[in-house]
Design goal:
The complex is a heterodimer of chains A (about 775) and B (about 150). Helix content of chain A is about 25%, strand content about 25%. Chain A is α+β, with helices and mostly antiparallel strands and about 775 residues long. In chain A, the strands form 7 sheets. Chain A has a 7-stranded mixed sheet with strand order 3-5-1-12-9-10-11, sandwiched between helices. A 5-stranded mixed sheet of chain A has the order 7-15-14-13-8. The model of chain A has no long low-confidence stretch (mean pLDDT about 95). Chain B has about 150 residues and is an alpha+beta fold. Chain B has 2 domains: about 70 residues, Ubiquitin-like (UB roll) (Roll), CATH 3.10.20; about 80 residues, [2Fe-2S]-binding domain (DNA polymerase, domain 1). In chain B, strand 1 and strand 2 form a beta hairpin. In chain B, helix 2 packs across helix 5. The longest helix of chain B is centred in the C-terminal third of the chain and has 15 residues. The chains are: A alpha+beta (about 775), B alpha+beta (about 150). At the A-B interface, helix 1 and helix 17 of A face helix 2, helix 3 and helix 5 of B.
Chain lengths: ~775, ~150
């Protein structure tokens, strides 16, 4: 950069911060009328059944019940709820309501009523006779199981993802580089390990919720807590079988997403009710529904074979992932890819060959979806644990073995679509993290005077910045009276602060204050097209669109100024507050230009730009955990978690830091407390926050976050991404520390105290 | 049945059923700051002050509030404004959905203990879940407020 940045790189407050902290109305339930129909869904008690008959006669008589819909009332066109760019890789395997129900919690009927009580009563009075079918509950047995989750002929895959509903297969594939088997055969050390992670939940504080009404043009107006207003419009049009022009989707403030709201979990039900009845309607998911019929992380079993030299050179990685997409294929074909694409390339520095294969299977549990990390989390847990085990076998320092093998700036990563590590400070992250954490002192296992064990572990991670060649980010920047700007975006701020960081970029480009930039988004009618906020895309992809739009707007401002100053635009200089002739002989203020633009003007002082990137430059990071294990109770306390992140230029250090801390704590939860179990009948145990234990502020320990910037030439102001990567290191780092403390490798999450205590008791000779 | 509460300093009369919970009543009365995150008294989002003591409004029957004083964040804007800017300076509000409950409980904490240690802050607010921030930014924000107060910078 040739000039000092004024707005980018500053920890400015989030534009909505004070309103949110003071509890002002901002979310779906706050900003939509309460006197609308209450929409509720009757859910299947069976993991797999065919509806033989369904009688709503008595339920319809409940006073206040407006409508009840069953599988006979809905369009028979299959669709996917996954918010992805069309044609979606996720198979079209859903109906709004289906005669076959595929998990305990699947939708059976939709009830719309004037009050909560009436809806509740009607739900109890719907009589359903089920033909209960055998269910596929264990994802190990799903492939080619005689029981098919999707036997229907109308099932279809739009993309070639290796799917076959006749085999319970949602996706399948293999890729490789080099001769893995030959390199493995030539290695001094070679071993295989398998890791299991569960379908943990995003557990955003605001559950899924949507309000729908018919607007004054007779269109369906949808106000939803969604990360994807444009995909939502398309998906709803598919599902309802109506033209896309009939739908308008907007999002107010979102009470957390983490990927959950990249799937249309709640929208379809009130939308259907409103389209059929013409009445405004609202659906608010209960926490139980959120847990049992949401869109959690894909359960995965990742098997890693590693081949290395005695010197510690990692020569080959062979990764196979079995992923459980549940009853429907939302994000099934894509999440699995990241389990290899964002774990194997970490060792590009030394790898001679790799292979990555996967199967994604259908089962009779709730559909998985998108959750921060999106498969990378699972793959990195497996690969990083294997590398830690290798270091142990070779009696090498796990920091050193990584420095010896890790990807370095400028390298081409064959396991990452042959994209380059164009900006990579992973080596510096490792060195700084070791220093800041005190690796040399904390790595040795220590006993405290009261008999507890202290130990440490390390892991590194990468993610992407948007989807290469797919994601589109757009920005529209307009000059207004007084010289302030409106920035319109289709990206969705879900608490992450993208409205603010994109305003910072606008302010930087237009040489004005962040306060001079008003942000509007996201609205499918008014925003320029944006794929939406997912895949760590917004800063990197939409940010670049902001830069481009600002550049164009500056030219237009100069065009109008040229008219006013009666000189060629090429002679003019724009400095934020005025446009002047290069020789300083004349100038016109931005306010005057804005005023002029509203009187006798023919040049719109607005610019819209779209951006898409052929590459997805990975952010990188290193995490180190110090734990204290109580061998009597199995309780694990994370004492210190130090993370050093390379997300390119840090656009807003405060927000990037909080993103990192939040992601670390989610990762700690996934590792130590958040469990998902199913009963034999396919019902989930952890269906409330009483059973599903997300970390409280007593379980976070000391978090220490630092940034180690690199400069990504293709990113706005050198930025990459931060949103997802931050959840990826806790599982392998804590598991490493637990190995150091116990001698056991924990290859299945979560690691609950009872498991640790029992293991330790056994080791102690069954005392 | 009819109940009367002193809501944010104003007498409000409402018709409630025996099983109406305070949370639903407060939202019906226009207190949009009061949020529901779990329905099982596990998240702290619906925290309000009942006779100046923090309670989870999802697990208090509306009739139990009859004749009593109820304060929501709508009524405590000035008291909250004194410190929430320090949380904004950390970026720790994030999605904001847990903020009102957390801010209400912080108000209760600071009334009870105007000079808490970081551990006392964590203990008192342990029942207020947040999924975005990782909590430490919230603690830093409150600490920054307390330091500013001590140093006479407010």
């Amino acid at each position: 950069m040739n000039r000092e940045l004024k707005s980018v790189g500053k920890g400015v407050r989030k534009k909505d911060a004070m309103q949110l902290l003071l509890g002002k109305p901002a979310y779906v339930q706050d900003v939509t009328p309460a006197d609308c129909l209450v929409v509720r869904v009757l859910r299947s008690p069976h993991a797999h059944a065919v509806i033989e008959s369904i009688s709503c006669d008595i339920a319809r008589k409940v006073p206040g019940v407006t409508a009840i819909y069953t599988w006979e009332d809905v369009p028979q066109k299959r669709f996917t709820m996954a918010g992805q760019t069309y044609p979606e890789p996720s198979p079209y395997d859903r109906l709004i309501l289906d005669r076959r129900v595929r998990f305990a919690g699947d939708a059976v009927a939709i009830v719309a009523a004037e009050t909560e009580e009436a809806a509740e009563k009607a739900l109890r009075l719907i009589k359903v006779t089920y033909d209960v079918q055998p269910a596929v509950l264990d994802f190990h047995n799903a492939l080619d199981n005689p029981v098919l989750v999707h036997p229907e002929d109308s099932w279809k895959a739009l993309c070639d993802v290796g799917a076959d509903n006749r085999r319970n297969l949602c996706a399948q594939g293999t890729e490789s580089d080099g001769d893995v088997d030959a390199v493995m055969a030539d290695c001094d050390i070679c071993f295989t390990r398998t890791f299991h992670t569960r379908a943990v939940h995003q557990a955003m504080m605001e559950t899924f919720r949507t309000y729908t009404e018919i607007d004054h043009y007779g269109r369906l107006h949808v106000v939803s807590s969604t990360q994807i207003v444009f995909h939502a419009r398309r998906i709803l049009a598919h599902a309802l079988d109506i033209p896309k022009s009939k739908i308008h989707v907007e999002k107010p403030r979102i009470g957390g997403g983490f990927g959950a709201k990249q799937t249309l979990v709640a929208e379809i039900y009130p939308a259907f009710v409103t389209w059929k009845t013409g009445r405004a309607a609202r659906m608010i998911y209960s926490r139980k529904e959120c847990q049992t019929a949401g869109s959690p992380r894909h359960e995965m079993e990742v098997t890693v074979k590693i081949g290395a030299d005695k010197s510690g050179k990692i020569r080959a990685l062979d990764v196979h992932t079995l992923s459980n997409t549940g009853a429907y294929g939302e994000h099934g074909p894509t999440t699995v890819g990241l389990s290899g694409h964002k774990s194997i390339p970490l060792y590009t520095g030394s790898l001679e060959a790799f292979r990555f294969g996967y199967d994604v299977v259908y089962t009779n549990v709730q559909s998985a979806g998108a959750y921060r990390g999106y498969g990378a989390t699972q793959g990195i847990y497996a690969v990083e644990s294997v590398v830690n085990e290798l270091a142990g076998m070779l009696d090498m320092d796990p920091v050193q073995i990584r420095l010896q093998n890790m990807v370095r700036e400028g390298q081409i990563m064959p396991a990452y679509y042959n994209e380059p590590a164009s900006a990579c400070a992973l080596d510096r992250c490792m060195l700084r993290c070791a220093e800041a954490f005190g690796w040399a002192e904390k790595y040795p296992v220590r006993r405290t005077p009261d008999g507890k064990i202290r130990s440490a572990g390390v892991a590194m991670a990468m993610q992407g910045s948007g989807i290469s060649g797919v994601d589109v980010g757009s920005a529209a920047v307009k000059l207004n009276d007084d010289g302030f700007y409106v920035l319109r975006i289709g990206a969705a701020d879900m608490g992450t602060g993208c409205d603010t960081i994109l305003a910072q970029m606008t302010a930087e480009c237009m040489d004005c204050s962040v306060d001079d930039v008003i942000v509007f988004g996201a609205d499918s009618d008014a925003s320029p097209y944006d794929s939406g906020s997912y895949a760590s895309s917004t800063t990197y992809v939409t940010g670049r669109a902001v830069e481009k739009a600002c550049l164009e707007l500056k030219e237009k401002i100069c065009t109008v100024a040229a008219e006013m100053l009666d000189c060629p635009a090429a002679e003019l200089v724009f400095d934020g507050r005025e446009v002047r002739r290069a020789d300083n002989t004349a100038s016109v203020s931005l306010e005057d230009i804005a005023t002029k633009s509203m009187c006798g003007n023919t040049v719109a002082l607005e610019a819209v730009s779209s951006h898409s990137s052929p590459t997805s430059p990975p952010p990188f990071m290193v995490g180190m955990a110090e734990i204290e294990l109580d061998p009597e109770t199995g309780t694990v306390e994370v004492l210190d978690y130090t993370a050093v992140v390379d997300c390119g230029t840090v656009v807003n250090p405060n927000l990037a830091k909080i993103q990192t801390e939040g992601g670390l704590v989610q990762g700690i939860g996934m590792t130590l407390t958040e469990n998902i179990q199913y009963h034999e009948n396919g019902h989930m145990t952890e269906n409330s926050f009483l059973q599903y234990k997300i970390p409280t502020r007593l379980e976070t320990g000391r978090l220490h976050v630092e940034f180690m910037p690199s400069y990504e030439e293709s990113g706005p102001f050198g930025a990459k991404s931060i949103g997802e990567i931050v959840i990826n290191t806790p599982a392998p780092a804590i598991v490493h520390a637990l190995y150091r403390a116990t001698g056991n490798w924990y290859r299945e999450l979560p690691i609950l105290p009872e498991r640790l205590a029992l293991d330790l008791a056994e080791k102690d000779g069954g005392r | 049945m009819e109940i009367t509460i002193l809501l944010n300093g104003k007498k409000r009369t409402a018709e409630v059923r025996a099983d109406t919970v305070l949370f639903d009543l407060l939202r019906d009365l226009g207190c949009a700051s009061v949020k529901c995150g779990c329905e099982t008294s596990a998240c702290g989002l619906c925290t309000v002050l009942l006779d100046d003591k923090p309670v989870l409004s999802c697990s208090v029957l509306a009739v139990r509030a009859d004749g009593r004083k109820v304060d929501t964040l709508e009524g405590l804007q000035d008291e909250a404004s004194a410190f929430v800017g320090f949380i904004a300076d950390q970026g720790a509000e994030q999605c904001g959905f847990c903020n009102p409950g957390f801010v209400m409980n912080t108000i209760a904490l600071l009334r009870e203990n105007p000079d808490p240690t970081d551990d006392e802050i964590r203990q008192y607010l342990a029942g207020n879940l947040c999924r975005c921030s990782g909590y430490e930014g919230q603690t830093r924000g409150i600490r920054a407020f307390l330091n500013a107060k001590k140093e006479g910078r407010l």
